[in-house]
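agent> fetching stored inputs for the thiamine diphosphate docking request
agent> found them:
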Amino acid sequence: MTTIYRKSKGLQDVPMHYCPGCSHGIVHKLIAEVMEEMDLIQQAIAICPVGCSVFAGSYFACDAIEAAHGRAPAVATAVKRTHPNQPVFTYQGDGDLASIGAAEIVHAAMRGEHFTTIFINNAIYGMTGGQMAPTTLLGQRATTAPGGRTKEQAGCPMRVAELLSTLEGLVYAERVCVVDIPHLNQAKRAIRKAFEKQMAGEGFTFVEVLAACPTNWGMDPIGANRWLMEHMAEYYPLGVVKEV
Amino acid sequence: MKREIWKGSEAIAEAAIRAGCRGFFGYPITPQNEIPEYMSVRMPAAGGVFVQAESELAAINMVYGAAACGVRAMTSSSSPGVSLKQEGISYMAGAELPGVIVNVMRGGPGLGSIQPAQGDYYQATRGGGNGDYRTVVLAPASLQEAADLMFEAFDIADQYRNPVVVLVDGLIAQMMEPIVWKEHPGRPLPEKTWAADGRRGRAHNNFVTSLFMDAPDCEAHNLALLEKYKAIEANECRWEELMLDDAELVLVAYGTPSRVAQTAVEHLRSQNIKAGVFRPITLWPFPYARLREIAAQPQVKRFMAVEMSTGQMVDDVNLAVAGQKPVAFYGRCGGVIPHVSEIEGAVLAAWKEGL
Ligand SMILES: Cc1ncc(C[n+]2csc(CCOP(=O)(O)OP(=O)(O)O)c2C)c(N)n1
Ligand code: SF4
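agent> prediction call returned; pasting tokens
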């Protein structure tokens, strides 16, 4: 019998709690596969955020540290600097990274910390029930912007990959999504490249994943992916944002 | 052993390195800038990591990160900065991570003043951040004691997997005094089998977290922490008694005011007033039991807490004395250090009031 598919060894054999159609589980899987393929599971240290992926450390097979909301890049800075030869990554949502943790991510990028950040941009606060995030699109409804986000009230959404790419310490930033197999494969290539550059000691690496939150968007999984490609990918262009 | 003259901040930093600290994360604030400045040179030379963080929030979360993967780590700051660190300290207590936080207290609230004060006693001894937790609080009154207690701070933190606060007022950090660098054999410490430093063959992954989704699990965790705090109370309480054997009036003070109080007591004794000093060295656990015993002694007539605040530790003195004898208070605050004559005057006034 030939095995054509199995769960990555980078994941523990436990069920995940994510909603149907949520991108978190898919991105976990891609990270796990990259860790397995690069033989990093035994060395890697994951820094988990506060958000829907707060249990990521119970899903990844590598060691993990739960950070306070937004502080994963500060935690990762100390972990990587005290363990410079081991792969370290933060996994963060858009509320976590772009709002409460904006200072921590900017300064980690500025310092060119040698870890990788996987940034899950689902344009909403998932865990707390659909409040507006810095990445919520203009016109997009949120529980704290029931009529849709307006520029006058909340400004325009933040393009984090572009913002961080102005910093010399960032050596690689790519924006990807996981709505279908081709995009998923590209996302995996980006994650792998980020880990490779990290292990080569090049600097700070960043992969932004446009992610679906069907639950808080009020859509079914297929509709959510369609909305993501039509609206999010328009404002947040897919592709390499910076590579040096 | 050779006596060397050291500046307080630098002695604290040097002692930390000698105690095996290999991660320092800080943000500038007066009056403790000499600690990160010293660390920026000495820590890399000792093979450790120094990072000037973007904020005190980031700095304490770096301590959290280093501690979570098994490294002895610390941060230092002064009052407004320590307020920002409360988030990380609460997370460290919740995730049971060791680490040392030095607070060189200045006047408050808010930006306050940059002169020595003791207004952060409540914050340090009552947890300070969210949740039911305690930090061990060590309060040295001399540079020798500060240097010695840094070794203890890291050992206590590692033994109990809990953050330890070294609480000094600005004077201790800024003054110069002779120090003898002693050998510190330390205590037997458990291995950090919980550290998330990469599995490297370990059968399971380590996940450092303070999250418990189910309330009964979180309650069990809190009760386990409580047991730990009880063990700390039983094992780690420290204090010093000066001229207490026949004392009728007991001054209670820590840090700089304890030294001023000691001089005041010497003057008072020359006027035949039997005073003494009780100096808590651990502010948490506070030496309640010993102070209660002293309060029960028949010759003891009255207590007076002396602080550089409007009265915070005096609450613990009252808890200890438990109404057995009257407890008075004398304090200066906002960065003002009480003079010997003021304490003498306050004691004489209390004496006249009818000891
Ligand atoms: C200091 C603090 N503030 C607020 C919260 C509440 N909180 C939990 S998760 C979250 C936002 C999560 O959104 P995001 O980072 O976008 O991740 P997602 O859940 O969408 O994956 C917030 C505000 C918290 N846990 N801690
Ligand atoms: S709420 Fe949204 S982000 Fe959270 S698990 Fe559900 S779909 Fe995913």
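agent> quick read of the result: The interface with chain B takes residues 12, 41-45, 47-48, 54-55, 57-58, 60-68, 71, 74-79, 81-83, 86, 103-104, 106-107, 111 of chain A (CB under 8 Å).
agent> awaiting further instructions
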